[in-house]
Amino acid sequence: ALDIRMVIPRDPSGPSKVDVAADAIHRIWERTRDNEYLDTLTGQPSTVRGSLQLVFSDIGTPNQDRWNAYDELRQQLVQRGIPAEQVRYMHEAKTDVEKARLFAAARAGHVAVLLGSTEKMGVGTNVQARAIALHHLDCPWRPSDIAQRDGRIMRQGNQNEEVAIVRYVTERSFDSYMWQTVERKAASFAQLLRGKINAREIEEIDTSALSAAEAKAIASGNPLLLEHSVILNEVNRLRRLQRAHERNEDMLVHTGNRARSAAERAAADIRGLEAAAPRMIDTSGDRFRITLGTRDYDSRSEAAHALAAWMGDSGLKWLPRYGHKDFGIIGRISGFDIHVEARSGLAALDVTLSLPEVPRSGFTLPKESFLEAGLGLVQRIENRVSGIPSLLDQAREDLEEAEQTVADTQQRLGQPFRHAQTLADAEEDLARVESQLAAMQDEPRPEPDSLESERVELTIEAVRGYQPNLGSREGAVTVTVEPFDSSDPTRQPPSSTPSL
């Protein structure tokens, strides 16, 4: 798919990806050779003009013993006018020091085109300052490799407002299988990372999956597959919006129900607080009075000691972590009963003290904090009474907010899905294209023409010629090559993996 000379060096066999890429890279170079950039070290305008283009290919890498795509591309770029010294390989840098120098040259504008593989020009490559275009000559096996490649240009520090990412595919070639593999993996990984795995549906919303699907369709040479890919992506997008709309409707129902319950509770609290407010007795300063058990106290410190004694006598002090006990009414303050209950909490035994006749007056403390509260506990009980007006104001605000939420949800609930007609039209188009693809499957497959047969024979000959380079003994490798009709969208390309 990259170039037939990878297999048959003596047969150029017409235009290849390398030829097309050379034209595209040269056009971009012509258009951006005078672009101005800031110096990455000083932040001042650089005296060196020109953008940087990154070219990725994991195959056809530099090799002195045979034809390779890197040298061919470099030669064609030089022939088109790009200075030879400005076309560099990542493979030239053997050490970290050499890599640093090459990266610095690229950032400074002394490199116009930098070629490399995912392994050598992926993680750690920091040359994005002038990067204007990135070219994928081949398709790697993993979506993460595509992400690593694209991450060399789509990252912070790039001074270009817009960049180009170019993917090259060869019609009726193994590119279709490669992009299909990446598409499948990217969609699955994206769903896995979202934590939503459904055996009956994969939501292909990851951008790398979508671009892979389109590349696969283009490579197949069948325009219907490309149309199917585009329409399917649109249908999936609209269906996701529809599901989001349905989830939003469910959320509105839940929110409305919860708000109505909150409004009912707030209304009940208001009634209770309005009834309690006139009964308040001022206990501030010397007017302090509290009843604990059968005894009255007018001293806060004595009341604190009495509470501490009650904790021991009642058994609260010895209650285990997972215990539960309702101690009932233990006294009165300002005309209101004081109630205490202990129950197991998340991390400790919790003790709740409340004034049953005063809504929202309760407070909860871990048992150890309750036992050690001392005088602070008495003051906190006293504040429950003096805070009734504030509790009433808060309850009224809560009621107003809950009623407003109910009104808002009622207004928004039941709205139709605004893209319903667009989705229906897209699904109709999808059904039409899938019907046409199914009809193509039933058509008789044409016999391979003489050119196809000749290409198969040449491929078999070339593979046999290169068998010693596979590192296996003679006769240990069997390679099966069969004609593949890429116009049949349902047929998978034959595996390129040798059978050992």
UniProtKB/TrEMBL annotation:
<keyword id="KW-0347">Helicase</keyword>
<feature type="coiled-coil region">
    <location>
        <begin position="392"/>
        <end position="443"/>
    </location>
</feature>
<dbReference type="Pfam" id="PF00271">
    <property type="entry name" value="Helicase_C"/>
</dbReference>
<dbReference type="InterPro" id="IPR027417">
    <property type="entry name" value="P-loop_NTPase"/>
</dbReference>
<keyword id="KW-0175">Coiled coil</keyword>
<feature type="compositionally biased region" description="Pro residues">
    <location>
        <begin position="491"/>
        <end position="500"/>
    </location>
</feature>
<keyword id="KW-0067">ATP-binding</keyword>
<dbReference type="InterPro" id="IPR001650">
    <property type="entry name" value="Helicase_C-like"/>
</dbReference>
<feature type="domain" description="Helicase C-terminal">
    <location>
        <begin position="33"/>
        <end position="208"/>
    </location>
</feature>
<keyword id="KW-0378">Hydrolase</keyword>
<protein>
    <submittedName>
        <fullName>Helicase</fullName>
    </submittedName>
</protein>
<dbReference type="InterPro" id="IPR052933">
    <property type="entry name" value="DNA_Protect_Modify"/>
</dbReference>
<dbReference type="GO" id="GO:0004386">
    <property type="term" value="F:helicase activity"/>
</dbReference>
<keyword id="KW-0547">Nucleotide-binding</keyword>
<feature type="region of interest" description="Disordered">
    <location>
        <begin position="481"/>
        <end position="500"/>
    </location>
</feature>
